[in-house]
Amino acid sequence: AYRNFREPGQRRGQSDKADLMRFREFLALFRHGGEEAEGLYLYDLSLPLQLPGLLEYIRLPRYFTHCYLQQTRRLHCFSRSWPTLFMGAKGSQAKLHVDQWHGHFWMYMVSGRKR
After folding, report:
1. β-strand pairing of 2-5 with 17-20
2. Which residue from 18, 45, 70, 111 has the fewest beta carbons nearer than 10 Å?
3. What's the 3-state SS for 28-63?
4. What CA–CA distances, in Å, run from 91 to 19, 30, 96, 99, 114?
5. 11 near 21, Cβ under 8 Å?
6. C-alpha to C-alpha distance for 97 and 94, rounded to whole angstroms
7. What are the backbone angles phi and psi of residue 60, rounded to the nearest 5°?
8. Residue 7: is its pLDDT beyond 60?
9. Model confidence at 112, in pLDDT bands (50, 70, 90)?
10. Residue 16 half-sphere exposure, CB side, CA atoms within 13 Å?
């Protein structure tokens, strides 16, 4: 997990600031909210490998369970790590990019809104 935000007055092309932190610290700040949580972003946490107990509470629509990564017969570094979890607090951001598998990516917003 990390804090991901652009400094006020930062010009285009300059690097964003990112402070790494442990999941426990991220969750405490995320739950508390407010200024301390602004910009927090949990990126690609593997549920089967790191939070397997959470999987019993998640139901994926059938359409999403047949993604490209699950259809390939070759083992790869993500074979056992899907699905993954992303969480972003107010002010977090992800720039436009193409993932390394060049596949489709679906996200679900539980609360809040995107600009």
Report:
1. antiparallel
2. 111
3. HHHHHCCHHHCCEEEEEEEHHHHCHHHHHHCCCCHH
4. 14, 12, 16, 22, 10
5. no
6. 8
7. -95, 135
8. no
9. confident
10. 16
Residue 55 and residue 47 in contact, taking contact as beta carbons nearer than 8 Å: yes
Q: How many angstroms separate the Cα of 111 from the Cα of each of 40, 58, 81, 89, 114?
A: 15, 16, 25, 10, 10
List, in order, residues 6 or more apart from 88 with CB less than 8 Å away.
40, 41, 42, 94
pLDDT of residue 71: 67
Strand partners for 37: none
Which DSSP symbol is given to 11?
A: P
CA 104, CA 115: separation in Å to the nearest integer?
21
- At 23-41, the pLDDT tens digits run 899 999 999 999 888 888 8
Bridge pairing between strands 84-88 and 40-46:
antiparallel
